[in-house]
């Protein structure tokens, strides 16, 4: 079990390297009310006082064009670096962490497909990392959860809903620990879907930050329609 040092700075790895297979296209670059989807979360982190550095991870083919798009947004601190991602999400996160240039104790990994993160998550993540190896934004499950045998399609058991949380991002981890665990996973050929899983598998403590329905991930066309309504409401406020 790792003893968590006192965190003093925060870096963000914003992951926008996915192919968007479920959505049908790379939705992180699709224009939402005239602006690429990834820019919504990027601007939220640019406006956060706690953030000292941002690495934006995108597909290799679009690195030059995204760098040009980001230049007008990153005219002040924190600095933004655009790098090429990998085949899997964890490969992209590793490349993002490796690209960090400034000293930061904590890394917050966020999916660009979640365009409306709350800045309050950043303070909560920093605070929880004082006593834990990491923290993850999550929502308590609103539904009864069934465990099903994939071979037969039959219910095996009903899981206690009060203990079920739906993981979101950002997910927070001590920088050097995250780098080590990502490197070890790569060397061993393991695939994980998020940073919290890496920490769990290593026996580390991971705290939960209550999330929000507005921190929804855009994975289907109906999610896009929802995001359009959110932006319209905010523009009219």
Description:
- This protein is an alpha/beta fold and 237 residues long.
- It has one domain: Spore Coat Polysaccharide Biosynthesis Protein SpsA, Chain A (Alpha-Beta Complex), CATH 3.90.550.10.
- It has seven helices and eleven strands.
- The protein has helices spanning 37-46, 63-70, 89-98, 120-128, 175-188, 195-201, 221-236; strands at 10-15, 31-32, 35-36, 51-58, 80-84, 106-111, 134-140, 145-148, 155-159, 165-174, 206-210.
- The strands form three sheets. The protein has a seven-stranded mixed beta sheet with strand order 5-4-1-6-10-7-11, sandwiched between helices. The protein has a two-stranded antiparallel ribbon with strand order 2-3. Strands 8-9 form a two-stranded antiparallel sheet.
- Helix 3 (89-98) packs across helix 5 (175-188).
- It is globular and about 55 Å long.
- The N and C termini lie far apart (47 Å).
- 35% of the residues are buried.
């Amino acid at each position: 079990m790792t003893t968590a040092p006192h965190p003093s700075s925060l870096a963000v790895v914003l992951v926008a390297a996915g192919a968007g297979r479920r959505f049908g296209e790379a939705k992180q670059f699709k224009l939402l009310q005239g602006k690429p989807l990834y820019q919504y979360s990027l601007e939220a982190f640019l406006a956060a006082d706690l953030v000292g550095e941002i690495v934006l991870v995108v597909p290799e083919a679009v690195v030059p064009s995204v760098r040009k798009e980001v230049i007008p947004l990153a005219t002040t601190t924190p600095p933004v670096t655009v790098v090429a991602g990998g085949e899997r999400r964890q490969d992209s996160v590793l490349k993002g962490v490796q690209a960090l240039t400034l000293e930061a104790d904590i890394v917050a990994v966020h999916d660009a497909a979640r365009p409306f993160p709350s800045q309050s998550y950043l303070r909560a993540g920093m605070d929880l990392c004082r006593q834990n190896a990491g923290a993850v934004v999550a929502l308590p499950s609103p539904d009864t959860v069934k465990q099903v045998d994939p071979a037969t399609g039959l219910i095996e058991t009903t899981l206690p809903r009060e203990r079920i949380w739906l993981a979101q991002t950002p997910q927070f981890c001590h920088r050097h620990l995250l780098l080590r665990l990502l490197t070890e996973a790569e060397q061993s050929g393991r695939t994980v879907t998020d940073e919290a899983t890496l920490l769990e598998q290593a026996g580390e403590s991971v705290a939960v930050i209550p999330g929000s329905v507005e921190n929804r991930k855009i994975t289907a066309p109906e999610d896009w329609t929802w995001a359009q309504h959110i932006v319209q409401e905010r523009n009219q406020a």
